[in-house]
Amino acid sequence: MYASLSRFSISVVVIVSLAGCGGSSNSSSTGGGGTGGTDGGSTSVTFTITGGTPIAVATQVGSGSFTAARLSGGSLTLSLPSGTSNFAVAYACSALPWYMPPVTPTIDEYVYQASTQDGTSLRGSCANLNSSQGRVTVQVSTSAIPGANMVTVQGLAMMEASGGTIDFSGTMTAGTYDVFIFVQDIDNNLLALKVLRSQTIPGALNGGNPVIFQTSDETTLQAITYSNPPSGFSPSQYILYETSGGASTTLDVLGSTTQYPAMPVSAFQNGDYYLFDAAASSGNEAVGVEKFTSSVGPQGFTFPAPWTYPGPTAAALPTINFDYPGFSGMSSVSSVAAIQWNRGNGTPLNNGISVFTTANYRNGATAVTIPDLSGVRGFLAPAASGSTIEWFATVQQGDPAASTPPSGTVQYVVNNGTYTVP
């Protein structure tokens, strides 16, 4: 689920939480009490899960117990009685990719704790681990791109560039989606890029026509600058480009933290956007800024103050104290508490639980406890005594997901560590 405190672990913690809720604020809430509908009656909250289908779903109203729930068309609706504003939705996803051997799947659990003050139409996502494969073919010509050394069809193969046309064939995940084709130099830096929109697999990509790169498909280098990096923290960056169809690719320059390769104008369509994730880390601490934008050009980032946290008391289901003062008084503040542990049976795979909590739900409290959902069929039992737990704690401010495509910034601070379950 998560790696150690790396670019991958930071980005996953933050992005997963954004996918869940529309944001929160520091305005007061009455926790399990509060107000329901404005007419004094009940309030309906809809929660939609995109991507794959969860293996289990549960809901909680106020401070009540979690109970099993069912999706209808990928969504569920909670009815909160008058005087209740807090609720939670939990779901479990199978995390075993199609290419793994036939072993018992690992489980990723996601818990979203929110208030009606955060909105009444929220969403989460479950990985779509489609095991169906289809055969594809495509021809690619890169002779117009100076320095072309390799060509990659995302999800299919990488082949050495040549002066003529390159024939690709093989299998890709079945479905209809956007496909990226890249041209790289000898150091694997991105030189040019095309997006084949709404390709159906199996079948011939690009309608069976050759994909011919022109100089108009070349990327252009743009500058990235940083402000306020904490002393002793090392900066890093992660740039993602996502199409309106939901396909994505990274746009990093290998070994560089001061520039990125901007998409060619020919590849951009309305609804596409960039995700810039600039971070600085030292040991188990990190600070970062994520920017969601559809505009290309130089990018600047100002880091928040770091957060030093010694970690939770060792337990199978720990309580994490989110006492970071750096975002005090700001709107759209939320937290993510996450743990993972090895599932055993001699595999390198891990089970994991992530809990996303809004400030309105916490109502001034700083502690978040990983809930025990083992009493609901399909959810994980807590890690056994002697298990090594890796924990992550993230506090973030901002809500780019409030617009389509996402727009705006997120500031975040992260801590992580490990302990042994008593």
State the strand order across the main sheet. 3-2-5-6-25-24-27-28-21-20-17-18
Structural category = mainly beta
User: Alpha-carbon distance between the termini?
Assistant: 23 Å
Number of strands: 28
Measured on Cα atoms, how large is the radius of gyration?
23 Å
Taking pLDDT < 50 over at least 5 consecutive residues as the criterion, the unreliable ranges are 1-39
> Please, how many helices?
2
Helix content: under 10%
Strand content: over 45%
How do the SSEs run, as a string of H and E? HEEEEEEEEEEEEEEEEEEEEEEEEEHEEE
Write out key terms for the chains shown.
about 425 residues; mainly beta; four-stranded mixed sheet; 28 strands
Structure description:
The chain is mainly beta. The protein has a domain at 7-129 and 314-392. It has two helices and 28 strands. The protein has helices spanning 7-20, 359-362, and strands at 43-51, 56-61, 67-68, 75-80, 86-94, 107-115, 121-126, 133-141, 150-153, 157-160, 165-173, 175-184, 190-201, 203-204, 211-212, 220-227, 234-242, 248-250, 259-262, 273-282, 285-293, 299-302, 319-321, 333-342, 350-358, 367-369, 388-397, 408-420. A twelve-stranded mixed sheet has the order 3-2-5-6-25-24-27-28-21-20-17-18. Strands 8, 11, 14 and 15 form a four-stranded mixed sheet that branches. Strands 10-9-12-13 form a four-stranded antiparallel sheet, with no helix packed on it. Mean pLDDT is 86; it is low at 1-39.
